[in-house]
Amino acid sequence: MTGLDFAVLAAYFLLILGIGFWFARGERSSQAYFLADRNVGWFAIGTSLFATNISSEHFIGLAGSGATTGLAVGHFEWLAVFMVLTLGWVFTPFYLRSAVFTMPEFLERRYGPACRWYLTSVSVAAYIFTKISVSLYAGALLLETLLGWDFYTSAVIMVVSTGVYTVAGGLSAVIYTELVQAIILLGGAVVLTALGLREVGGWGALRAQVPPDFFSMIRPVSHPDFPWTGIFFGAPILGLWYWCTDQAMVQRVLGARSESEARAGTMLAGLLKVTPVFVLVLPGIIARALYADVNGDNAYPLLVLRLLPPGLTGLMVAALMAALMSSLAATFNSSSTLVTFDVYRKLRPAATEAQLVRVGQLATVVMVVLGILWVPFIRGLNSQVFVYLQSVSAYISPPIAVVFLFGVFWPRATKEGAVAALACGAVLGGARFVLEVLKARPWVADTPALHALVSINFLHFATLLFVIATALLVAVSLATPPPQAERIRGLTFATLEGGYARTPAERASMRWQAPLSVALMLGVIALWITFR
For the chain, which terminal residue's Cβ has fewer other Cβ atoms within 10 angstroms, N or C? Predict the structure, then answer.
């Protein structure tokens, strides 16, 4: 890093902090602080969804997996196109018309308070064990490689720089800083990919220097990480949970000024999700072709250190920081929203607006500390950071996806059925998680049943857990009295008040949004065929 690089990095921080604190002015209501006054436009929603999703573990993990196995990890990115469109077209009408602040609140309206408490607990735990801790781990690894800072110094700097404007400005600060961060991180990634391709000699030379299967995305059933059966049956379950029911993602849609703006935002996010395969996974393959000392997680930092001239190195570090800070800020804000509305206001319904905002700010600080404490345990579970993130999601997401999916499509689903599905999923998912942590112990490795449970691919496990949770929800729902019609009014497609498109403006917007959404999905299918 030269003086020019540090100047670029300093300019980035000044810009982001300036935007963040701009939205911290004056007194705000809880709706303004947590949902940006429900007045966010489509472009900000789309870029915010993308920036929230792309964090430092994507730069580390996607490039690392690219260097190790090729393009196959990119399945998660292209499947996300279909999932984020599902958010916009399937779930958005229910979320916006119910005027909820959180996903657990929506689940309580559909099923009951037990489901709300479960989802709140699981979501907060997931933020600590995956989102915050993995982002900090990957970000610290990047800064250690690029700047020579030790891990905890890096973690503290990242947390403080992100936390100050998140605590002060709320969702508005988060969304509009993410808009800028999305442009910076994409711009930096495109520049590095272009320079890497030039260095390796172009597309043809790259394909000649790596194993042929690196450009094949369809892998056999026996593949340890990306079997095609797991990708096309298990990965969509993870995606449905993450894009359509996770507070950190859905909160951007909850802040939309209309259903049409929300759908358009998800379409933009879907378009942007096509790019990581080419600007994050592909650089890992380039690093594999260029450098003999690539070991997976160091692929992206090596490209930054060895390819970029002064000035551009600072831009790339700014892009990496943008990816980290955008994801952390979204997680901080969403976790504080959950604690505030699903715990504090639930226990103290008479709390004032000022008290709600203060509790949200305090919750952010607590989540940051817990996330840092968990980070040292991550590397022992999986050497590929991104695969670890996805595998942990597989343990908690299937039953949640089941209750949301059946909640809007099947009016007969009951609270008893939902609780049974969530409880069973918690037991089985928790057992798998504990066994993976302890898989080297003799009592696990030498017990056939336990060894089989821990050895099944995490995507196959997600599929199995989804099937079990579905069967349980349906069976228990049919064995218990149906929910009262008044209770679920407006919460299922069969009871959606006012129809799918309530106004002429909504119907007019759908005339161009529908064909463009179809074209986007067909484009992704064409890419799969090309790289089959």
Answer: C
Residue with tokens 């800020």: 329
Look up residue 92 and give its DSSP letter. H
* pLDDT tens-place string over residues 294-353: 877 788 888 888 888 888 888 888 888 888 888 888 888 899 999 999 999 988 988 888
Q: Is the dihedral of CA 403, 494, 105, 82 positive or negative?
A: positive
Helix/strand/coil for 227: strand
What pTM, to 2 d.p., does this model score? 0.90
| First-to-final CA distance of the chain | 40
Q: 476-504 pLDDT, tens per residue?
A: 999 999 998 888 888 999 888 777 887 88
Q: Which domains does the chain have, with CATH numbers?
A: 3-15+32-341+354-530 (1.20.1730.10)
Closest-CA residue to 61 (of 12, 130, 1): 130
Question: Residues 32, 87, 324, 102: is their CA dihedral positive or negative?
Answer: positive
Report the alpha-carbon distance of residue 382 to residue 439 in Å, rounded.
Answer: 12
Distance of CA 217 to the CA centre of its chain: 21
Q: Do residues 320 and 12 lie in contact, with contact meaning Cβ atoms separated by under 8 Å? A: no
Best CA proximity match to 147, nearest among 360, 388, 320, 357: 320
Query: How many residues in the chain?
Result: 532
Q: Tokens standing for 66? A: 């690219």
CA distance 352 to 401: 33
**Which pLDDT tens digit goes with each residue over 139-156?**
777 777 777 777 777 777
Helices (H), 217-311: 228-229, 235-244, 247-254, 259-272, 276, 282-290, 299-307
- C-alpha 430/C-alpha 501 separation (Å) is 41
Q: Is the pLDDT assigned to residue 390 strictly greater than 60?
A: no
User: pLDDT: is 198 or 499 the higher one?
Assistant: 198
CB 407 within 8 A of CB 491: yes
